[in-house]
Amino acid sequence: MSSFWVLVSLTTFVVGPLNLIDAAPDSMIRHFVINETASMQKAFDQMPKECTKNGKTFKEGESFEFGNLRYKCQKYGVYSIEGCQTDDKKPIALGESTVINDVKHQCLSVGNSIHYRQTPSLKTVNIPEGWTVIDGGSNKIPNTNATVITRILMFNAIPGQHQRQRN
Fold this sequence. Notes:
Structural class: mainly beta
InterPro entries: Mig18_Fn1
Order of helices and strands: EEEEHEEEEEEEEEEE
Keywords: Signal
Number of helices: 1
Protein name: Abnormal cell migration protein 18-like fibronectin type I domain-containing protein
Oligomer: single chain
Signal peptide: 1-23
Domain Abnormal cell migration protein 18-like fibronectin type I: 50-113
Distance between the termini: 103 Å
Number of strands: 15
């Protein structure tokens, strides 16, 4: 009798020599033992048929969401992240950005991680009369996803207004 481990990740699983022995609830690692006469299909038949996330169960092909991420249940209890959604449930595809009511919503895939991000997105800022933007730019903050945006303002005397009298 030989044994091996099956490691199930978000979108893939690796099979390695399978009779389900034990697994903790919601565990991503399952240990199987296969008799020499047993088939791999029998081992796969013993794997989960439903996905479990945050104590809820979903059937294969069923879509669900938690927070700002959208998921889909695949075979053998594996679920994939299909994209993101805004707080009011508007779907956003992976890699997509959209601006709604001056808020930029982004669904980002970075390495093995999926991130949903909201940031203010004002194209123009109302500045008081007499002030003008003369320079500006943006700089990334090292080792973060943050950016500092700067604007240099200059005050011009407003034509037609008198300066204060000095005594």
